[in-house]
Design a protein that fits this description.
Blueprint (H helix, E strand, L loop, with lengths): L7 E4 L4 H12 L5 E2 L11 H11 L3 E4 L7 H6 L1 H21 L4 E5 L28 H21 L3 E6 L1 E3 L12 H14 L4 E5 L5 E2 L1 E3 H14 L6 E3 L5 E2 H12 L4 E5 L14 H6 L7 H14 L1 H4 L2
Parallel strand pairs: 1-2, 1-3, 3-4, 4-5, 5-10, 6-9, 7-12
Antiparallel strand pairs: 8-11
Helix pairs in contact: 1-7, 2-4, 4-5, 6-8, 8-10
The chain binds NADP nicotinamide-adenine-dinucleotide phosphate.
Length: 314
């Protein structure tokens, strides 16, 4: 259990996940939080990372910094995604271990699981078959990060853990027109369609794929919960365990935003994987469950989109 005055380093505190972890820590009475912006500390710079740990000596670390991107960015620049993420993770986890960090939590992503993993995906399906090609480099870097935590635990008796979230959304999301994930992309498109009075919006595919979404503040609550209540080499999935079709999601976003035009589908565009759902029974057994229902979460995310124009423009 983290002591209330413990020194906690949140890496990536300006990102969607990192900022939610800082909010959650503050909410729970943890205020001794150390942060550095990307500009102040480039986590790819091994010497700078070493010097930071030497100077600050944090006791706990949440590793939520990463080079993140959608399918397009991942398939255009696999070398960059692999190098940046692999080096960043190794630098932070290695320095944490060298400087005696009591516990570290590594943030991964559900794309680490095999492309054809049985649904819903359990933690133990990791490395049982081939990965999805489009984000293989990113997934391999994430698998290396979680395996490095496991190897440190085995070889040196550390208490380093990892969490694998499903699709996230919420405050500080990325709403870039080309580089964002499906839910923030829909928020932006329907908002702009409403503002411009467009009679219809055309969405990719046929709307049939099933997906799961977790509000980022719920994920942050899980991250703090696991830091305080979980130890183990196997990762823990973070999700709701509930799925809906992209068509249903689109209808929900249009409803929250108040877009009354028509929604059309373009089946000539790819659908992606038919179903992607995490098995969340492990987190449930540990005593954790999500709180924010999707429609409420979309409402909160849309509020943030409207009031956080700088981030919305990323
Ligand atoms: N978003 C999702 O749906 C989702 C789902 C599952 C898992 N996750 C995981 O959650 C983690 C965080 O994702 P996110 O959505 O919060 O991403 P994000 O909003 O892009 O935040 C990532 C943060 O890391 C920082 N960063 C990147 N490279 C850095 C470097 N070399 N040195 C220092 N800081 C660096 C970024 O700073 P700059 O912006 O200044 O570069 C940014 O603040 C990732 O591991 C991701 O895989 C996210």
């Amino acid at each position: 259990m983290m002591e209330k005055d413990a020194k906690i380093y949140v890496a990536g505190h300006r990102g969607m996940v990192g900022s939610a972890i800082v909010r959650e820590l503050n909410r729970q009475g943890y205020h001794n939080i150390v942060t550095r912006t990307h500009k102040e500390l480039d986590l790819i710079d091994q010497r700078a990372v070493e010097a930071f740990f030497e100077e600050e000596k944090p006791e706990y670390v949440f590793l939520a910094a990463a080079k993140v991107g959608g399918i397009g960015a991942n398939s255009d620049a696999p070398a960059d995604f692999m190098y940046d993420n692999m080096v960043l993770e190794m630098n932070v986890i290695h320095s944490a271990w060298k400087h005696g960090v009591k516990k570290l939590e590594f943030l991964g992503s559900s794309c680490i699981y095999p492309r054809l993993a049985p649904q819903p995906m359990k933690e133990d399906c990791l490395l049982t078959s081939e990965l999805e090609k489009t984000n293989e480099a990113y997934a391999l870097a994430k698998i290396s990060g979680l395996k490095y935590c496991e190897y440190l635990n085995r070889q040196y008796g550390t208490d380093y853990i990892s969490v694998m979230p499903t699709n996230l959304y919420g405050p500080n999301d990325n709403y870039h027109p080309e580089h964002s994930h499906v839910l923030p992309a829909l928020i932006r498109r329907f908002h702009e369609a409403k503002e411009n009075g467009l009679p219809y919006v055309t969405c990719w595919g046929d709307g049939s794929p099933l997906r799961e979404f977790l509000y980022v503040d719920d994920l942050a609550n899980l991250c703090v919960f696991l830091m305080n209540h979980y130890s183990g080499n196997e990762t823990v999935n973070g999700g709701t365990g509930k799925e809906l079709s992209i068509k249903e999601l689109t209808g929900l976003v249009a409803k929250v935003i108040g877009y009354e035009g028509e929604i059309r589908w373009d089946p000539s565009k790819p659908n992606g994987t038919p179903r992607k759902l995490l098995d969340v029974s492990k987190a449930a057994k540990l005593g954790w469950t999500y709180r924010t229902e999707l429609e409420d979460g979309i409402r909160l995310a849309y509020e943030d989109f409207l009031h956080n124009p700088v981030r919305a423009e990323r």
